[in-house]
């Protein structure tokens, strides 16, 4: 099936494969969130032990950057977890695998790489970044 095929809903076997792929993505994301949370807590704890004046300490700005960077990665991982959960909901409603913009099927190769994708390649490329 390519991106211009007529929509075909996933059968029970396909749904089981898709559900497992999304569950694996969810497990990986949960593990990433746990690791990032641990990293963030470690940075916070390390800074709590030292009186750091970010403005005057040469290490302060890099510590602040590191904390902000890990916080940003953590927020992105949590957003991705929400995307995976929404993909599971679309699967249950039999709407998984269809572009939310144009309604055409999302190519299976794209869904294999990005199981929570909500747009086809054409619509994703046309979206502002």
Automatic annotation (TrEMBL):
InterPro entries, alphabetized: DnaK_N, Znf_DskA_TraR, Znf_DskA_TraR_CS
Zn finger residue spans: dksA C4-type: 99-123
Gene Ontology terms, MF aspect: zinc ion binding
Domain Zinc finger DksA/TraR C4-type per the UniProt entry, residue ranges: 96-127
Keywords: Metal-binding, Zinc, Zinc-finger
One Pfam assignment: zf-dskA_traR
Keyword Transferase in record: no
Domain of life: Bacteria
PANTHER family assigned to the protein according to its UniProt record, in alphabetical order: RNA POLYMERASE-BINDING TRANSCRIPTION FACTOR DKSA-RELATED
Protein name, per record: TraR/DksA family transcriptional regulator
Lineage, opening ranks: Bacteria, Bacillati, Actinomycetota, Actinomycetes, Kitasatosporales
């Amino acid at each position: 099936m390519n991106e211009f095929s007529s929509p075909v809903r996933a059968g029970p076997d396909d749904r089981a494969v898709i559900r497992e792929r999304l569950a694996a993505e969810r497990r990986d994301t949960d593990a990433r969130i746990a690791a990032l949370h641990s990293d963030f807590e470690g940075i916070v704890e390390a800074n709590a032990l030292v009186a750091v004046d970010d403005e005057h300490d040469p290490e302060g700005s890099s510590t602040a950057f590191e904390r902000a960077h890990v916080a940003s990665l953590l927020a992105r991982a949590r957003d991705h977890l929400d995307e995976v959960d929404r993909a599971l909901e679309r699967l249950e409603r039999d709407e998984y695998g269809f572009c939310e913009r144009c309604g055409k099927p999302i190519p299976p190769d794209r869904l294999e790489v990005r199981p929570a994708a909500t747009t086809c390649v054409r619509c994703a490329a046309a979206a502002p970044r």
